[in-house]
Amino acid sequence: MRAPNHDCKFCGLHDGRGQRGKRPKHVCIEGNGNMGSRAMIIGEAPGEKEDQCSKPFVGPAGQLLDKVIGGAGAHRCDFFVTNIVKCRPPDNADPRAGEIRACATYLRFEAMRIQPLLVLVLGSVAFKGLFGLTPLDKYRSRWLEAQGNWGDWGETFFLPTWHPTNRRKDAPDQLAQHVKEFVAVWRYAQEQSYDRAATRAFIKGRQSRQPEKFPLMPVFR
Ligand code: SF4
Prior knowledge:
Layout (H helix, E strand, L loop, with lengths): L31 E2 L5 E5 L4 H6 L6 H12 L8 E4 L13 H18 L3 E5 L1 H8 L4 H4 L4 E3 L10 E5 L9 H21 L4 H12 L4 E3 L7
Parallel strand pairs: 2-3, 2-4, 4-6, 5-7
Antiparallel strand pairs: 1-3, 5-6
């Protein structure tokens, strides 16, 4: 894993996949937020606004995310917010599998620093990148546990949900519901000093079953 490198050239996104004139303004946009909350929010990739400001989730998707986190009684500063890919893809295309693999070293570095117990995963691109699982619709709103000892990630609980830009009619309401669930579990985990067994039991009580175990993709282990 590596610390952020603003001159990174590990994948073509640093120069807009080689398309002249499409180089993003900023390379390797790091996550930001609360380094001590043991909770991360992982989205897909920076968009235009994020590239201008060099911060994740400051555009329209970030505004919606702020609103639903506020509706759940928390603030986005309570969490560490980042993306699975750190440079803006041209025309806001979905990041490709090779780009996610190339960029994994930076997400692992962030996870190493945060040591997350809880992760909210926004959207199918980030979810597939982390677990290789599809479709998101089958897994969203269910807590998953990263299987086994995943090194620096430890045993972490993941809650997949829609990305704020998802165009499904019911996506904003469901996103708000899932964020409320995430905040409720995070508050409980805080009270329990982030005790893993207590948090697992709390999740089991809320969804009437243990969080299902899945391996993270090898590049994140
Ligand atoms: S997306 Fe990630 S791997 Fe690719 S150039 Fe940017 S920082 Fe490097």
